[in-house]
Amino acid sequence: MTEASPLSRYQLAELGALLAEPARAAILLALMDGTMRPAGELAKIAGVSAATASAHLKRLLDGGLLSLHEQGRHRYFRLANDDVAAWLEAMALPHASRAVPVAAIRDTALCRARTCYRHLAGQLGVALCEAWLERGWLLTQSEGICLLPHAADALVQAGLQATPALQLLHLRGRGCLDWTERRLHLGGPLGVAITGAMIDAGWLRRAHRNRALLPTPDGLRRLAELGVHIQT
């Protein structure tokens, strides 16, 4: 499933059938953090037997929602690509008016900042995208969203390593609709690389129990210098 290949009604029906099974939905949600997981771990998460999980994983692979990584005798599953993650995230939007207040009460950290597959989402992701578009650091083009050179220089001055920051200039991102904020955050390869660079720099830490990202005090200070502000 890609943006360049529009879905037919039959493909859409098949995708709906894939998500209609709670165990398969649980598997997909578990992989939304961008990790690779073995079948046994996914079976436990989905609450099904190993044989049942194997059948579900085959259907998800055949449906193009998962990819398989083999390392020796070990087999690991992950979401097929960023397009799948963006589609799954957007699927929550029709329920956002009911789900967001409850989610915010139960897990404010997840709404504040989290990974959408491998890029930054939530309040912090939306704030970053909007601030950098307003500053003219991000430019929307026909082939995607790009980071401009003066923005890369600002990131280096703020504390990101020079080589990763300059590599960002060769990547393209895209607007990804945030299911809790219902506004755009920065996805695609550019969004993934920026998020990874901020994690490496210690501006963000991964939560252990879910896909929340925890901004560090130093990270919040440096992001504020880059025009990115959220309520603390």
From TrEMBL:
<dbReference type="Pfam" id="PF12840">
    <property type="entry name" value="HTH_20"/>
</dbReference>
<dbReference type="InterPro" id="IPR036390">
    <property type="entry name" value="WH_DNA-bd_sf"/>
</dbReference>
<dbReference type="InterPro" id="IPR001845">
    <property type="entry name" value="HTH_ArsR_DNA-bd_dom"/>
</dbReference>
<dbReference type="InterPro" id="IPR011991">
    <property type="entry name" value="ArsR-like_HTH"/>
</dbReference>
<dbReference type="GO" id="GO:0003700">
    <property type="term" value="F:DNA-binding transcription factor activity"/>
</dbReference>
<dbReference type="GO" id="GO:0097063">
    <property type="term" value="F:cadmium ion sensor activity"/>
</dbReference>
<dbReference type="GO" id="GO:0046686">
    <property type="term" value="P:response to cadmium ion"/>
</dbReference>
<feature type="domain" description="HTH arsR-type">
    <location>
        <begin position="4"/>
        <end position="99"/>
    </location>
</feature>
<dbReference type="GO" id="GO:0010288">
    <property type="term" value="P:response to lead ion"/>
</dbReference>
<protein>
    <submittedName>
        <fullName>ArsR family transcriptional regulator</fullName>
    </submittedName>
</protein>
<dbReference type="InterPro" id="IPR036388">
    <property type="entry name" value="WH-like_DNA-bd_sf"/>
</dbReference>
<dbReference type="GO" id="GO:0003677">
    <property type="term" value="F:DNA binding"/>
</dbReference>
<dbReference type="GO" id="GO:0032791">
    <property type="term" value="F:lead ion binding"/>
</dbReference>
<dbReference type="InterPro" id="IPR052543">
    <property type="entry name" value="HTH_Metal-responsive_Reg"/>
</dbReference>
